[in-house]
From TrEMBL:
Residues 89-142 are annotated as: Disordered. One of its GO terms (biological process) is mannitol metabolic process. Residues 116-127 have a biased composition (Basic and acidic residues). It comes from Penicillium egyptiacum. This is D-arabinitol dehydrogenase ArbD.
Amino acid sequence: MTCFVCSPLNRPFLLADTHHQFHSPVHTYIASLQTLYLLSCSAFEAVTFKMSKPTVARNAIKALNTARPAFTTARPATGFTRPLSYTASLGKKKSDDPAKDPILSATTNAPQGASSDKEGQFARTDESVQIEYPPDSEMPTQPVAQGRGGMHFKRTLAQFSLEKKVSVVTGGARGLGLVMGQGLVASGSDLAIIDLNKDEAESAAASLIEQFRKENPGLEDMPNVTAHYADVANPDSVSTAMAEVLAKHGQIDNLVTSAGFTENFEAINYPFDRMQKLWGVNVDGTYLFAINVAKHLIERKAPGSIVMIGSMSGSIVNVPQPQAPYNAAKAAVRHLAASLAVEWAGHGIRVNCISPGYMLTALTRKILEENPQLRDQWTALIPAGKMGTPEDLMGAVTFLLSDASKYITGADLRVDGGYTVT
Ligand SMILES: NC(=O)c1ccc[n+]([C@@H]2O[C@H](COP(=O)([O-])OP(=O)(O)OC[C@H]3O[C@@H](n4cnc5c(N)ncnc54)[C@H](O)[C@@H]3O)[C@@H](O)[C@H]2O)c1
């Protein structure tokens, strides 16, 4: 019998000879495969040609005895060896020069840019993308959602209703917070809007009431929607806002922390004061409001539900815009929700996180208008093929605040068109 490795050298296959002992582990491996082959042939012959049992046993023991020393002597005494794998070459013999292997040089072994101009194209950040969160004077205005809050006659689980509840939404004057607040009002809740921009919060509260009246003509029992100033990153400001809300509503049952923002700078040149502000609003602000509401619920001995608005950026790294501090902040929000869920579970307070993907708010629309290349890059990576709308969060937030999710706590609900599963 001829060894596959030695045959090109016209060597006979002698398992115990010196050639074999100093041969590579590949040879040893193949030798063992051949041994197994011999064993199975012996068995096959025994069945097919009715070989006597002692002959089969003799052949098998002979094969094993010859193979065993080969393994022990050929294996290197120390050091780590890669597990052996062997793929038979198809047709042409492979070149020994790695530079001439087209797959190797296009995938693992090539210098940057050698294989194509698309290397890493959809998996890298681009430091030239720099987007600052605009000042309030440049913020685009956003109308309230239309046609989502009217009475309807579709049967639905009563558990989804938020009637007789008071919900607080931070960052509720615009964007996702405004639309989620509208969803809560449509589901029966009263609402306290908290925002840094009190004027906008007040006009949002008035618009929500007006829209509700339009969509529910003849309804006398109007929701109580109020607006309050707070800088969520400031503990004193949060305490003052809490006292104001309790004075107007008497109680708080639910909280949605939507105050937050993102900015894009490459990490090395990220202005430190802006990074601190970003973490202050997204992380400290979420934490401060959550502990204040939990304290109130614990004192009242009332159950409650908190939804923290994180982002898919807390689980993945967005491309091409660089935003390391934001991504880290949203990962913190997600794990804060899980941690507080455990801490407050005994008080009947549930804490969950919603991680939206790319949502088309008035602000993201402005960003896309100013950076049109981002639009195609973003949508190309979303399995649903489309960005979400703020209205897509109405049901998710209502579900997590309502009794429909009574046994759900510490969860992260991703509303991202499938972005994070690819
Ligand atoms: N828009 C998206 O595509 C998207 C995606 C994932 C996550 N998010 C997250 O959703 C949340 C809402 O984002 P958005 O797109 O609606 O933003 P937005 O800028 O439209 O609205 C944010 C609101 O928060 C308020 N705010 C900012 N700082 C505050 C502070 N210190 N105290 C109180 N209020 C403050 C703003 O005045 C504004 O009304 C953010 O946490 C954001 O990170 C947004």
